[in-house]
Design goal:
Bound molecules: glutathione
CATH architecture of the largest domain: Up-down Bundle
Distance between the termini: 47 Å
Strand order of the largest sheet: 2-1-3-4
Largest sheet: 4 strands, mixed
CATH class of the largest domain: Mainly Alpha
Strand content: 5-15%
Number of domains: 2
Oligomer: single chain
């Protein structure tokens, strides 16, 4: 496909953003060359009028392919699969495709918010505390989606005690339980048909927990999940898309701030498990 191979791909991103990592993983797995443009979220560059023309939500990532912007990380990954089908990352069989998309939904509807609340209350909150009151209020005002703004303000005010963190921990607990079950039949990857966007979509979220030193709280007692995580990290794309681009300072910051909330996250998880045992519907 020489015409497609020459197409120009630019990824607007923030280095340590989970959804940008998801798109970078897909690009690297497919061996596609791409350029990056950094959008500094802590300097509010996502609200720059030029950037808002590409992504009216004021979020990263945005993929620009031959001049056309594509937004929403899950849709970007599926778009890349449509345009560059090899190597295949979406299964052929319809039921397997539905299973793959169920994982995309779990990430988009629960884990993404979850990782944002945990990371924000553990770590990014501190950067907000260092802003002037006026800068902080501008930051809150700029968040267009009112539900996102409420979450943002809650984790800023209450930190790890925000109810959104409790719901985040519950979403992760559910996802890890499903992951262990999916892997229980002995396959290497989430879907029987092989490595797919289901694995890719989940990877940055598991990586973030790992960097925050919180992964073992969920992975202990789940041997299939641990083995899957080893396999994921051994893929060259993991180094190219996730661990390689992180600076030692970013890694140390995640380790440090994650360590500070670890005990509290463990207690929230215990409480969540107790409530699960008491309920009939999981
Ligand atoms: N559903 C969107 C979520 C994008 C998103 O939340 N991006 C975060 C970084 S991971 C962001 O741009 N945050 C900017 C902000 O909070 O103002 C996607 O998957 O692309």
């Amino acid at each position: 496909m020489p015409a497609l191979a020459k197409a120009m791909i630019t990824l607007y991103q923030y280095g340590n953003s989970v959804c940008a990592q998801k798109v970078r993983l897909t690009l690297c797995e497919k061996g596609l060359p791409f350029e990056t443009r950094n959008v500094d979220l802590f300097r509010a560059e996502q609200y720059n009028p030029e950037y808002l023309k590409l992504n009216p939500k004021g979020l990263v990532p945005t993929l620009v392919h031959d001049g056309a912007p594509v937004i929403e990380s899950t849709l970007i990954c599926e778009y890349l699969e449509d345009v560059y089908p090899a190597p295949r990352l979406v299964p052929v069989e319809p039921l397997e495709r539905a299973r793959m998309r169920l994982w995309s939904k779990a990430v988009d509807e629960g884990l993404h918010e979850g990782v944002t609340e945990i990371s924000f209350s553990a770590m990014f909150r501190q950067a907000m505390q260092e802003m002037s009151e006026q800068q902080r209020q501008t930051r809150f005002r700029n968040v267009g989606d009112p539900r996102r703004r409420d979450r943002f303000m809650s984790t800023y005010a209450q930190g790890i005690e925000s109810p959104y963190v409790t719901w985040a921990v519950a979403a992760f607990e559910k996802a890890f339980s499903n992951l262990e079950q999916s892997l229980a039949s002995g396959g290497d990857w989430i879907l029987q048909s092989g490595y797919s966007l289901a694995d890719i979509n989940l990877t940055p979220y598991v990586a973030r927990l790992d960097y925050l030193t919180l992964l073992d709280l969920f992975a202990d007692g789940r041997p299939a999940t641990r083995a899957w995580w080893e396999r994921v990290q051994a893929r060259p794309a993991f180094t190219d898309a996730i661990s390689g681009p992180l600076t030692p300072e970013e890694v140390e910051r995640m380790r440090h701030f994650g360590g500070l909330v670890r005990e509290r996250v463990a207690a929230i998880r215990d409480d969540c498990l107790r409530r699960q045992r008491e309920s009939t519907v999981t």
